[in-house]
Amino acid sequence: QVQLVESGGGSVQAGGSLTLACEVSGQTYMTFSMGWFRQAPGKEREGVASISSDDITTYADSVKGRFTIFKNYAEKILYLDMNALTPEDTAMYYCAADWWRISLERGFEPNYWGQGTQVTVSS
Fold first, then answer.
1. Which residues, including other chains, have CB under 8 Å from residue 98's CB and lie 6 or more apart?
2. How far apart are CA 24 and CA 10, in angstroms?
3. Residue pLDDT tens, the chain, 123 long
4. End-to-end Cα, the chain, rounded Å
5. Which residue in 39, 4, 9, 38 sits closest to 23, CA to CA?
6. H helices, E strands: number in the chain
7. How far apart are CA 38 and CA 121, in angstroms?
8. 3-class SS at 26?
9. How far is Cα 6 from Cα 110, in angstroms, rounded to an integer?
10. Phi then psi for 89, rounded to 5 degrees?
């Protein structure tokens, strides 16, 4: 059994910062590929960032240069540092893990999903 639990969401002003966390538990290792996805009401899900088992990172063009994804191996937590936030970043953010890979392309479904954490950015 594998569980992913997100935290760190909230409401911020445009230009502000938030750090999201995804706690990993169960019969798994941080050798999984992991990532963050987001979805706003009425819009399709968007891949935000991913990190491979060897710590190679990939970012959506919309967040590149503003967001940073990284793992804390000792604490078994996946983080997403979010800076220079805009109202377009408002969404429910979901942590994901896959035994093989994470793709940010449309339609990808990972092996495991977290429950999500809400991020709201006001102008």
1. 32, 33, 34, 110, 111, 112
2. 21
3. 789 999 999 999 999 999 999 999 987 666 789 999 999 999 999 999 999 989 999 999 999 999 999 999 889 999 999 999 999 999 999 999 999 899 999 999 999 999 999 999 999
4. 41
5. 4
6. 0, 11
7. 14
8. strand
9. 16
10. -85, -5
3 closest CA partner among 71, 96, 107, 79: 96
Q: Which two tokens stand for residue 62?
A: 């919309």
Supply φ then ψ for residue 121, to 5 degrees.
Answer: -115, 120
Token pair, residue 11, equals 């409401």
Query: Does residue 78 contact residue 10 with C-beta atoms inside 8 Å?
Result: no
CA nearest 119: which of 81, 84, 93, 95?
93
Tokens 């006001």 belong to residue: 122
User: Quick one: CA dihedral 18, 58, 53, 113, positive or negative?
Assistant: positive
